[in-house]
Amino acid sequence: MPPTTAITFQAVLDQVTVLSYNVRSFRLRLAEPKRLDFQPGQFVIVHVPKDGSIVKRAYSIASPPHEEGILELCLQHVGGGAASTFFWALKPGSAVTLSGPHGRFTLKEPLTYQPVFMATGTGVAPFRSMLKHLYHVNFTQDMWLLFGCRYEHTLLYEAEFRALASLRHSFHYIPTVSRPKDWTGETGHIQQIFQKHIKELANKEIYVCGWLEIVKAVVKDLQEFGVPKDQIHYEEW
Questions:
Q1: Tens digits of per-residue pLDDT, 198-224?
Q2: What's 123's DSSP letter?
Q3: Which of 24, 122, 163, 170 is most buried, with most CB under 10 Å away?
């Protein structure tokens, strides 16, 4: 079970990586304490200073637990948003206050099943943590990442996921684009890709993450496809 006690801790910005035109990865190095125990899929709350007070925003941890002392967060820029304004202005070495870990959107134990991860946009962040963890523990079952975006240039961690898939044939990375331009891969929504590629439901656990309305639609469709409710796990943003 995920730990139930969250702590407040300090970190400093280590590195910023541009993932798409409006999404960036922020790599934070823990300062006090220097280690945070968490489960893949959990999130932290960032304490964002604004107008002399603090607003709190929740973000899934995109890095795996075995990268000790490091947390990576994946943020989409929102015009005028408190967190966007704060993070986009940060420089390496800037201090950040957070609390966590929070959440129960974690891998079901024991790991004797085949996980199917279904994500849209920045909802892929917790699955990056889960996948890297599964590689780290030498997980040998088949696993899928069905990742949907509107445009091909907004597919996050694209090169990284393709590299992971090249390492193990048991990892099936299937990105799909709903408004393609020069895209030769799958097109449409992740529900359609699920129907096309996931033919057998036995021994599978389905994990869904993304914006609330999309998650609701995906979960509804999965149930209509015949996926048992207790095999579907999701987190609403």
A1: 999 999 999 999 999 999 999 999 999
A2: G
A3: 122
